[in-house]
Design goal:
The protein has 144 residues and is mainly β. It contains two helices and ten strands; from the N terminus they run ββαββββββββα. It is 14% helix and 44% strand. A hairpin with a 2-residue loop joins β4 and β5. The protein is globular and about 40 Å long. This is Serine kinase of HPr protein (Carbohydrate metabolism regulator).
């Protein structure tokens, strides 16, 4: 019998927008931190960069940073930079970096973390409109 994990470490950056966590995942060099930085410039706050700890607690998922990297972000060309951050936020959306996402997705996708389904979208991280698309997806995440 397989048991559901109550916590997972995910290779991805995470920011909170209006108190809700958005986890940005993708391969190294795909633009996770760049997209997070642009979202922060638009008012988001850093939760974690590069690795995010996701924990199921009281029927919800919480995203947080490992203690060793809390409040820090690797900014390509500048190095490790300190940032204002929050300890944790409820996970509301996953952004999976993809250079060729579906143009018109027919259904809301999900990814299972810690035994719970989380809405997922695919975006090219370095597209100029990517931060706006993340905000729109978070706002409309329950719609197909």
């Amino acid at each position: 019998m397989m048991t559901e994990l109550s916590s997972e470490s995910v290779h991805g950056s995470c920011v909170a927008i209006n108190g809700e966590a958005v986890l940005i995942e993708g391969p190294s060099g795909s633009g996770k931190s760049d997209l997070a930085l642009r979202l922060i410039d638009r008012g988001a706050i850093l939760v974690s960069d590069d690795y995010t700890f996701v924990q199921r607690h009281k029927g919800a998922l919480q995203a947080s940073a490992p203690a060793t990297i809390k409040g820090q972000m690797e900014v390509r060309g500048l190095g490790i930079v300190p940032f204002n951050s929050i300890d944790s936020a409820p996970l509301a959306l996953i952004v999976s970096i993809s250079n060729q996402p579906d143009r018109l997705p027919l259904e809301v996708r999900h990814r299972r973390l810690c035994g719970m389904e989380v809405p997922l979208i695919q975006l090219p991280a370095l597209e100029p409109s990517a931060p706006i698309k993340v905000e729109l997806a978070l706002k409309h995440r329950s719609e197909p």
